[in-house]
Amino acid sequence: MNTSIQETTCKSIDLDGFGSTADDAWFDQHTAPIDGEEETGVHPHQATALKAYLKGDSKPSETAAALTKPYNSEKKTDLRGRIEGILEDALFKLPESYIPALVDLLKELSRLPDEEDGKPV
After folding, report:
1. Residue 8 CA: distances (Å) to CA of 15, 29, 80
2. Quick one: how far is CA 39 from the chain centroid?
3. Which domain of life does the UniProt lineage start with (predicted)?
């Protein structure tokens, strides 16, 4: 039984044909601070990682690692919390062609060990 997981990348920016909404402005809207609150929105490095992934420049495993990379003294679990909003918006507001890549990324994030007990979240 072959249990290897196929790595996918998302090239939908090139394939949509109607000007993807995943442009710089879309990512800026999701980058902290949002409405003047530092704890809302993703950090710039998280937005950059997701943008690169959606362009097809990185794999789900690389992107998940970058999204949860410690930032200052923030815990990994807090970093994951920051990206939930942008991933939810991406699933509902970006072109449908992004969905398979976003689902792959969510699966990869779910495999990362929890900071408290070391088990996948």
Report:
1. 15, 26, 21
2. 17
3. Eukaryota
Counting DSSP H helices and E strands in the chain, the numbers are 6, 0
Tokens of 64: 């998940």
Contact present, 94 and 88 (Cβ < 8 Å): no
**Cross-strand partners of 32:** none
Query: pLDDT value at position 77?
Result: 65
Position 77: which residue type?
Answer: T
pLDDT at 36: 77
Q: How do the domains of the chain map onto residue ranges?
A: 21-111
Q: At what angle do helices 44-54 and 99-111 cross, to 10 degrees?
A: 130
Give how far the C-alpha of residue 96 lies from the chain's centroid of Cα atoms, to the nearest Å.
16
Whether this prediction's pTM lies above 0.85 is answered by no
Q: Phi/psi class of residue 88: alpha, beta or left (left: φ > 0; alpha: ψ in -120 to 50)?
A: alpha
